[in-house]
Design goal:
By secondary structure, the protein is an alpha+beta fold. The chain has 2 domains: 181 residues, no CATH class; 201 residues, Alpha-Beta Plaits. It has 15 helices and 10 strands. Helix 5 runs parallel beside helix 8 and helix 11 packs antiparallel against helix 13. About 4% of the residues have low confidence.
Length: 415
C-alpha cells in the first residue's frame, strides 16, 4: 500500500467517482474473461466415448474423438462463473440501484442471448453426452441455465434495491445521530459554562462528577479574606430616576457597574478572588476558597489580592463617574478568618459562605464611610508588613462584637 501511495496521489483514493469507475472497469474485465470461456469452445467437435452401466456390467460405447476443452464439456461451470461475476457486481459495487440493475441485466442478457442464438448446441451436446444415447426425461440444460440467469437477475436487482434503501436509512440515522450528538455536546458545554458562572470553578468540577443530586457540598476554610462593597448612594440615584419613569435606565447602570466588577475577576492578579453574590447594590467576594495546599495559605497572597481587588473596584467606579458624570460612592469592608463554604438547594443552587468572619466583614462595610475601605485588626496586622498604607480609625462599636479597633486601607506603596 505504501508503494501505491508513492505512485498515486491521495485524491485518487479519496475520490468516490474514481473508485467506482475503477471498480466498474475491473468487474467488466472479469466478466469478459468469464465470457471468453464460451468463445473458446469448438462447436464443430463431436462427442467421444461415454460409459453406460447395464446391471452390473460396464459397457463402453465408442464415439469419435472429442476435441473440446474441459470447461466446454461442462458448460454449466461457465454459467456459474458468470453468476459469480453478477453476484460480485451486486455485492461489492456501491452505485445507484438502477445503474447496478442495468449492469447485472446487461451481463445476464448478453449471456442468455449467446446461449439462445449461438451456443445452444454446446448445452444440447452436454445433455446428449450425459444421457449417453438414452432417452431420459429432464429439463434441457440451456433452459435451466437461462432460468437460473433470469432468477438471479431478479433476485440481485431486488437485493440491490433493498440494500440501497437500508444504506440510505442508515446514512440518515447516522446523520441524525451525529447531529443529536453535536447538539448534546454543545448543550453540555453550555451547561458546563453556565455552571461555572453560577459556582466557583472548583465547586463546579465537584458537581460535574458522578454524584447524587442531593449530595451536600461543604468545605471548611481556615483563612479566607471576605469583602463586602456597597454603592452607598445608589438608592438616591434610583429614586431620582424612578420619579421620571426611567427605572430601567437605573437598572442598566447598576448592571454595567457589576459587570465591570466581574471583569476584574478575569485578571491573573485576582486568581484567588471568588465572587460570592450580589445583594442589590452590595457586592460580596472572598479570597482563599480555591486554595488547595496549606503552603499556599501560609503565603497569604490571597489576602493581598483581596485588598487590591477592593482598591481596583474603587478605581473603576471613580473612572465611571468621570466618564458618565455621575457621583457614585462605594464603601467596603474586609475581614480575615475561618469560614464554612457550601452549596444549598437543588433547584437554583446557591453557593455561599458562613461564619463569624462573614458577619464581621459585613459590619465593616455597614459601619464604614463613603469612598473608604475599612478593615479589621487581623487584616491590618498582616498587610501592614507587606507595603500597604493604613490609617487607624480607632474604636468602632460593632453589633454583636462590642468595640473593635478598625483601620482605613488607603492603598499600597508604589501604586
Amino acid at each position: 500500500m505504501q508503494k501505491l501511495d508513492t505512485f498515486l496521489p491521495d485524491k485518487f483514493f479519496k475520490s468516490q467517482f474514481v473508485c467506482r469507475f475503477v471498480s466498474c472497469i475491473v468487474l467488466a474485465l472479469v466478466y469478459i474473461t468469464a465470457l471468453s470461456n464460451v468463445f473458446s469452445c469448438n462447436l464443430s467437435a463431436i462427442p467421444g466415448n461415454c460409459t453406460q452401466y447395464i446391471g452390473n456390467v460396464t459397457v463402453m460405447i465408442e464415439r469419435p474423438h472429442v476435441n473440446l476443452y474441459g470447461h466446454c464439456r461442462y458448460p454449466q461451470y461457465i454459467s456459474f462463473t458468470i453468476f459469480l461475476v453478477m453476484i460480485a457486481c451486486a455485492v461489492f459495487l456501491h452505485i445507484h440501484s438502477m445503474v447496478k440493475a442495468a449492469f447485472i441485466g446487461s451481463m445476464g442478457g448478453i449471456y442468455v442471448l449467446l446461449i439462445l442464438f449461438k451456443y445452444r448446441e454446446l448445452f444440447d451436446w452436454h445433455d446428449h453426452y450425459s444421457a449417453c444415447g438414452q432417452k431420459v426425461k429432464h429439463v434441457a440444460l440451456y433452459v435451466e441455465s437461462i432460468s437460473m440467469t433470469f432468477y438471479l437477475i431478479v433476485g440481485l436487482i431486488c437485493h440491490g434495491y433493498m440494500h440501497e434503501q437500508i444504506v440510505r436509512l442508515d446514512f440518515l440515522w447516522k446523520a441524525q445521530a451525529t447531529q443529536e450528538k453535536d447538539e448534546m455536546e454543545d448543550k453540555r458545554k453550555y451547561n458546563k459554562k453556565l455552571l461555572h458562572n453560577i459556582l466557583p470553578s472548583h465547586v463546579a468540577e465537584y458537581f460535574l462528577q458522578d454524584r447524587p443530586s442531593d449530595d451536600l457540598y461543604a468545605q471548611a476554610c481556615t483563612s479566607v479574606a471576605v469583602m463586602f462593597s456597597n454603592i452607598c448612594n445608589f438608592s438616591e440615584f434610583y429614586l431620582e430616576l424612578e420619579t421620571t419613569g426611567d427605572g430601567l435606565e437605573c437598572l442598566r447602570v447598576l448592571n454595567q457597574i457589576i459587570v465591570d466588577f466581574d471583569n476584574l475577576l478575569s485578571r491573573s492578579e485576582f486568581k484567588t478572588v471568588e465572587k460570592i453574590k450580589t445583594i442589590g447594590e452590595t457586592y460580596m467576594a472572598a479570597a482563599g476558597l480555591n486554595i488547595q495546599t496549606p503552603e499556599e495559605l501560609q503565603t497569604y497572597e490571597h489576602v493581598e489580592e483581596m485588598a487590591l481587588f477592593a482598591i481596583a473596584m474603587k478605581d473603576i467606579l471613580d473612572e465611571m463617574n468621570r466618564n458618565a458624570f455621575n457621583n457614585f460612592q462605594i464603601k467596603s469592608g474586609l475581614n480575615l478568618g475561618p469560614v464554612v463554604a457550601g452549596v444549598i438547594g437543588v433547584k437554583k443552587p446557591q453557593y455561599d459562605i458562613w461564619g463569624d468572619t462573614v458577619n464581621v466583614a459585613s459590619r465593616m462595610y455597614s459601619t464604614g464611610k463613603a469612598n473608604c475601605i475599612q478593615v479589621t485588626q487581623s487584616v491590618y496586622n498582616l498587610l501592614s508588613k507587606r507595603g500597604f498604607i493604613f490609617e487607624c480609625r480607632g474604636l468602632v462599636r460593632v453589633k454583636g462584637k462590642g468595640k473593635m479597633i478598625t483601620y482605613w486601607l488607603k492603598g499600597k506603596e508604589g501604586s
